[in-house]
Amino acid sequence: MASTKRRKANGGDGDREVLDLTGYVPYFLTAISNTWSRSSSRLYLECFGVGVTEWRIISQLAIEPRIGAQRICEVISLDKGAVSRGVAALVASGHVHEAADGRDARRQVLELTAEGYALHDRLIALAIERERLVLADFSQAEVDQLLALLRRIHVRLPELREFTPAPEKPARTGKRTARR
Fold this sequence. Notes:
The protein is mainly α. The protein has 7 helices and 4 strands.
């Protein structure tokens, strides 16, 4: 499906190319991600007193215990400020413990406490239930295909972060310059 379509421009100055949201992949990725994150955050706050950022931190610490906040930022692509605030809230609530790294005393490592693991286990059950809800109309083969496609997009993210457009060429004015 095409990402753009021609549309009559206001003021009658011809057609203009505009996004066709029904064929524009970034629209779907953004709409799905934003809706999923907002609804997850609301639900997790109501049920467990933590938002989606804290859940992502808890989840990453369960997968990879004793890591620094920088590693969490790298893996789940969250802003340093959001991770810092989330970690501070989780430390204050007793779900995460901070300790000096044995290899580098200037660096702090994070790990879930017993309360943090208990919260993780309750949260993961709800997260998996919500994933099942969203994927209910897909066969296992379709889920596998979707994951394969998403992984291919994910691999390209470093290029997306570094992308800079080519410089625009100066507009032609229609005037000819005299040749010497």
